[in-house]
Write a structure and sequence with these properties.
By secondary structure, the chain is an alpha+beta fold. The protein has helices at 2-23, 75-102, 154-164, 167-195, 205-231, and strands spanning 24-37, 40-49, 52-60, 63-68, 109-120, 123-132, 135-141, 146-149. It has an eight-stranded antiparallel sheet with strand order 4-3-2-1-5-6-7-8. A hairpin with a 2-residue loop joins strand 3 (52-60) and strand 4 (63-68). Helix 2 packs parallel to helix 5 (205-231) and helix 4 runs antiparallel to helix 5. The longest helix is centred in the last third of the chain and has 29 residues, at 167-195. The chain starts with a helix and ends with a helix. The chain binds 2-acetamido-2-deoxy-beta-D-glucopyranose (4 copies). One 2-acetamido-2-deoxy-beta-D-glucopyranose (NAG) binds at residues 56, 65, 67. One 2-acetamido-2-deoxy-beta-D-glucopyranose (NAG) is lined by residues 120, 122-123.
Length: 233
């Protein structure tokens, strides 16, 4: 009985993986930042690939915890990634405080970023949305590397105009969403197929992690750019 159940379970998992694999894959990064008042921040973030948690990020009162949930990268490299993420988070919270002051935005403040890409059997798609206090604020269109305001407000228009003034950042974001992110998914699929014996050949796991942490760091940079340009006049 137990054996049959196990076999059914394994079979349904294999079928599920096949159906899932044929239709849809996605890599999503989420960052939630809460600023109860000036100089105080709580930040949570994670990355998921096909719904599986790949990275987590947490920042509270200067205490920082970021984890890779698969031991794919050497500890040396991982320590370097953590350093740059910490640097990013410090810049991020300082700049939110500057912008809030400049644009006279009142605390408490919630900044929510949701970004990633999706791979279908017949194409791909990407998304990057920023919410301010739970309301849609900005969206990045990778097709024409343009930020558009989602809120009908002077601050959203101002921020978009500022962001779009820097083609270096918008083009690199476009490249990240349309190529790096999609390649990450493809590499992940290859790894999965290799591990289930569908495909022969060696896959280099550290490379995959390099890409995915690079992605996290790059998104950090993109948000940082968002805030940097928003903070300037
Ligand atoms: C990732 O973080 C978001 C926001 O905190 C949360 O809603 C979601 O459940 C998390 N995903 C996983 C797989 O833990
Ligand atoms: C850091 O996060 C990881 C993953 O969420 C968790 O397992 C670990 O206990 C956390 N460490 C600290 C010091 O909070
Ligand atoms: C992919 O195929 C689905 C139907 O199977 C269709 O709805 C969708 O628009 C197609 N996407 C592209 C990018 O062609
Ligand atoms: C870019 O594309 C989006 C979505 O199609 C559109 O709303 C926006 O007006 C476009 N911006 C420019 C400058 O073409």
């Amino acid at each position: 009985m137990g054996m049959v159940l196990l076999q059914i379970l394994l079979l349904s998992q294999a079928l599920g993986r096949w159906v899932y694999g044929a239709e849809f894959h996605d890599f999503t990064m989420v960052q939630l930042a809460y600023f109860p008042e000036r100089m105080s921040a709580d930040i949570f973030g994670n990355a998921t690939l096909d719904g599986t948690l790949t990275h987590s990020l947490k920042y509270h009162n200067g205490q920082f915890n970021v984890s890779q949930l698969f031991p794919l990268e050497s500890s040396d490299l991982w320590e370097q990634r953590k350093e740059s993420l910490l640097e990013y988070l410090n810049i991020f919270k300082d700049l939110v405080s500057i912008i809030a002051r400049e644009r006279k935005i009142l605390y408490p403040l919630h900044v929510h970023c949701n970004t990633g890409c999706q791979l279908f059997a017949n194409g791909s798609n990407s998304f990057y949305e920023v919410l301010l206090n739970g309301m849609e604020f900005l969206r990045f269109h990778a097709s024409n590397h343009t930020w558009v305001p989602l809120e009908n407000s002077a601050r959203a228009r101002y921020t978009c105009n500022k962001l779009n003034e820097f083609p270096q950042s918008t083009v690199s974001l476009q490249l990240f969403l349309q190529e790096t992110c999609i390649n990450l998914i493809k590499t992940h699929i290859e790894m999965k197929e290799a591990s289930t014996g569908k495909q022969k050949g060696r896959v280099h796991a550290p490379l995959v992690l390099g890409i995915s942490i690079g992605a996290l760091a790059l998104i950090g940079l993109a948000v940082c750019i968002f805030l940097c340009t928003g903070g300037k006049r």
